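Section 5.1 Outputs to date
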Amino acid sequence: MKKILLLILFFTAVFLFISCSGAPAPAPVINNGQSGSITVMATNYPFYVLIDGQNKGVISLGKNGNFAVPNGKHYIVVTRKNIFSEGIEINVNNYSHIFSASLEKQGTPPKWVAILSQGFRASGSPSGTGSNSVKKSTIETAVNNVFEDLSPSLTAKSKMAVVNISSSNSSEGEFVCEELTLLFVRANKYSIVDRRSLDAIKKEQNFHMTGEVDDNSVVSIGQLLGAEVVITGAITGEGSTKRLRVKALDVKTGQIRAMSSQSI
């Protein structure tokens, strides 16, 4: 019994000595608040999101997935039923990076392709730097303004289709279409035509995104889709005169319900 008491006293003394001797404490976990976030919007199907190879879970149709990540480089991929998008590498530096995910048929013969499109950095400059990149932070502002201009003139629960934004840069036109569709879906006030149905009709009608498109052609596509309102427009000009012009057409009458013109 005495031996046990002596051992207890010995180890207690050693513990107190180490605690008071200035011995270094274990290294703390570094957390300086140096982080940003990644937001992914599932536009036409639910998607799983992989960040740096780790599955972050599923995002429901029309919903946003928000993921906090530390500053530094990260690699983002979306997938649905073993269909993987091309990955996008970003450098997070206290910014919020926004993406949209969609599933589309492409190629001949057509096959399903998962597409991950990068949006903008909410607190900074656009992250795209290549020759084919879109200045999405500027376009994003213009698209938001277009949505605000058009919405008051559109009846709640209207069946709508964002048909076409003509542009010499097809990625710009497609980006604007996707972003406008996102905004109308998020508003939760309208019935938005599924992109697959729209793409199928456009393919049947040999409808192209890059050239100027007649309003009658857009209205005809709206009729085939059973839409009440179609959204169409164009990106025109260069430099300081570059603008995004968009209008909402009534499919039944062919009349313009609303228009917006924004500098980009």
